[in-house]
Amino acid sequence: MMISNRTLAVVLLLHLFSVRGALAHRYSSSEQEASPPSVPTSAIGSAGPKLIPEPREVANKESLSLAHGVRVIAGSSDTEDRFAADDLRKALGSRGISISALGAGRTIELLRLDTPRAAALLSHERVNFDDQMKAEGYVIVPTQAGTAVIGATPEGVFYGAQTIKQLVTGTGASARLNSVVIRDWPAMRYRGIDDDLSRGPVPTLAFQEQQIRTFAAYKLNIYSPYFENTLTYASNPLASAPGGAMTRDDVEVLVKYATQYHITIIPEQEAFGHLHNLLSYDTYAGLAETPHGNVIAPGQPGSLPLIRQWFSEISAMFPGPFEHIGADETSDLGKGQTRDLVKQRGLGPVYIDFLKQIYQTLQPLHKRILFWGDIAMNEPALVHELPKGMIAVPWTYDPDPKGYDRFIQPFTNAGMETWVAPGVNNWNRVYPDNNAALANIQGFIRDGQRLGSTGALNAVWNDDGEGLFNEDWYGVLFGAAASWQQGETSIDRFKGSYGAVFHGDPSGKIDEAQQELMQAHQLLYGIDEEGATDNLFWVDPWSVDGKIVAKKMRPISRQLRMHAERALILLAEAKAEQMLQQQGALAAMELGARRIDMIGMKFEFADEIVAAYARALAEQSDPKQSDDVSSALYEISDTNGRCQDIRNAYSLIRDLYEQAWMSENRPYWVRNVLVRYDMEIQLWNQRGNSVTSVSNQWDREHTLPKASELGMPDAQQ
Fold it and tell me: Less Cβ around it within 10 Å: N or C end of the chain?
């Protein structure tokens, strides 16, 4: 039983059943703890500290002032514990809290379970440190001088220190430490992010280090960069673009850096599908299933040797125990060089056989092999043929009220280890659709835990080439919470904690701004089922496609803009009121809000241009309306004309986008995105100039061309 003193013990015993009821939502009825404490102390409630992930058990005590600073002590000489202490000092110091090396201020101790000091503190608080906690779990208990973290391993000590960061609120002399009793350990052994580095943005090494620090702060322990052609290979250097690929030196630095934060890097090199950037070269044309296609053809003499060369180099660069071969979305298979084989044997057997061949080819490297499960899950009878040493990673990214068992069970029924892969729903969107992301992450990880999945690999994809990782933290942190916490993680409590925990915003305005953007996405579902998509941002309102969208947009454009603009106001107010953390993420969020606002504005203003010109045409024959005609033309194209407004909005967002890109990514690829802004700026500038010429014609001749001659609809369509 976990208690802080005898009085608390009595209270807890009296309220045993109500406490268990408060915690029941965190566990499914079929889940049993290996060795549960007899009385859980407390659930995180509105009165307690906001924490991501939420601890298993927490008892709130008092709040301690840090006005006189803080002293962080590593109780052992272990290098990893000293690193955890130094990391904590830096985090608190960055918030203006005085860090003392002497006896002044509060003391935070980082202790190992096997030390006399830890044993005494646990005994005093009557707190159990069970076997199930020892791998990565920790205990936090109050001390006379402050608080102590106790862990059985370096990981446990480190994760306890990360929770301490969140228990400290405020900045400078006004900072306070929430004094609590916590017992905590993870539900899943592997908790990670799959980060797409191959479809546009390639992060700088500095930003990857920032990612590592932040992942670790929220108890993630896996980082899986996804490569198609963005890892440099000495044996096959052709496909890696200069400036657009990680080098061996980059990898060496990043692996060493991640190790300090207890993060394992799992390289994912596509070894079957998604290889167009390689197969577009004629040097590799003979390996392609279809000419310059996407899939390596099984059975070609060079296919397995190429894969062996890649992963031999990968193994030399990445010392971790895992490698990911991808093997998803092999849509070309059976359409080219394997057509006859697939007709003879079937698509499933050909696919499964090649997976087995890849596995056997890589066996000398002595790595655990992960693969995406989307193709194999459709062949449950054949899944039993796969080596049991492989790890299946079933993935799907949509909310599913029916649950996710059908994605997982083909592999668990075959006795295979599984990691589940939900996604942050950032791809092809101007800002992530967090409505879909949170529901997908919650349900998939919940069901994965129930069916015995040992890991979660939350996916970030950049199919559009425009993705900014700093926009993705909302979904990333919820994935961290869901994979650490047991059972179904509460979306509502996460929504109420994110701003305070990630940005240090006690006002709730960051949380409210996120909700405004989520509501904006919901409004757009009736226009595009994926919400605020790139297509809506880039489509010309006067094109054939744009006119179809415009009809659907008119009833909601004002409401859409109000949500986006409310988010911008809330962000500005929050930034003005206090010193916020994670400024890059805030800038990316502002950019997302401006891009959503631009969707509504563009269609609104395009309609206003059409209406103004229709009014000018209707009044051109009445000499008394000459000034009104001129005013209508000025409304379209003048200093504050609608064409200029649209041009100016694209121009501003272009600049903000470039700044956001360069704050996290290498220059590689960014021109492919910026040119789209440049084209829109030029388009609306030219349209404005055309109407200016028409205005001059009106002044000279009192005649106007048809709207269609200006590329404008004749009337609202």
Answer: C
Distance separating alpha carbons of residues 552 and 254, to the nearest angstrom: 47
pLDDT tens-digit series, residues 363-417: 999 999 999 999 999 999 999 999 999 999 999 999 999 999 999 999 999 999 9
Whether residue 524 contacts residue 560, with contact meaning beta carbons closer than 8 Å, is answered with: yes
Distance between CA atoms of residues 689 and 695, nearest Å: 10
pLDDT tens-digit map of 121-157: 999 999 999 999 999 999 999 999 999 999 999 999 9
For the full predicted model, state whether its pTM sits above 0.90.
yes
- Give start-end residues of each CATH 3.20.20.80 domain in the chain: 190-489
Side-chain-side CA neighbours of 50 within 13 Å: the count stands at: 22
Listed in order, the ranges of the chain carrying CATH 3.30.379.10 are: 6-184
Cis omega (within 30 of 0) for bond into 40: no
Going by C-alpha positions, the residue among 168, 160, 183, 36 that lies closest to residue 97 is 168
**Rounded to an integer, what distance in angstroms lies between the CA atom of residue 43 and that of residue 508?**
21
Does the structure show a pLDDT above 60 at 14? Answer: no
**514-710 fold:** Four Helix Bundle (Hemerythrin (Met), subunit A) (1.20.120)
Examine the pLDDT at 7 and tell me if it is beyond 50. Answer: no
Residue 492 CB partners (closer than 8 Å, separation 6+): none
Q: In whole angstroms, what is the distance from residue 454 CA to residue 526 CA?
A: 37
Phi and psi angles of residue 45, each rounded to the nearest 5 degrees, phi first = -120, 180
> CA 428: distance to chain centroid?
14
What pLDDT, on a 0 to 100 scale, did the predictor assign at position 33? Answer: 36
Cross-strand bridge partners of residue 141: 148
Per the CB < 8 A criterion, the answer to whether 264 and 221 are in contact is yes
Terminal-residue alpha carbon distance, the chain: 70
Q: Give every CB contact of residue 475 below 8 A, 6+ residues apart in sequence.
A: 423, 424, 425, 426, 432, 434, 437, 438, 441, 458
3-state secondary structure 699-713: HHHCCCCCHHHHCCC
pLDDT in tens, 312-345: 999 999 999 999 999 999 999 999 999 999 999 9
pLDDT, one tens digit per residue, over 504-527 is 999 999 999 999 999 999 999 999
Beta strand pairing call for 106-112 and 146-151: parallel
Which CATH architecture describes the domain 190-489? Answer: Alpha-Beta Barrel (3.20)
> What does the block give as tokens for 70?
């803080």
| Distance, CA of 377 to CA of 407 (rounded, Å) | 7
**Paired tokens of 507:** 């006002």
| Per-residue pLDDT tens over the stretch 595-634 | 999 999 999 999 999 999 999 999 999 999 999 999 999 9
Q: DSSP secondary-structure letter at 172? A: G
Residue 717 exposure: Cα atoms within 13 Å on the Cβ side: 14
Q: What's the whole-number average pLDDT of the chain?
A: 93
Please list the residue range(s) of the chain that carry CATH number 1.20.120.
514-710
Q: HSE on the CB side for 366, CA within 13 Å?
A: 3
Is 13 a residue whose pLDDT tops 60?
A: no
Residue 505: strand, helix, or coil? coil
pLDDT of residue 37: 38
Q: Indicate the CATH number for domain 6-184.
A: 3.30.379.10
Query: Any residues with CB less than 8 A from the CB of 368 and at least 6 apart, and which?
Result: 321, 322, 323, 389, 390, 391
**E strand intervals along 655-696:** none
269 three-class SS = strand
pLDDT category at 715 given cuts 50, 70, 90 is confident
Structure-token pair, residue 230: 């963005």
Interatomic CA distance for residues 407 and 393, integer angstroms: 9
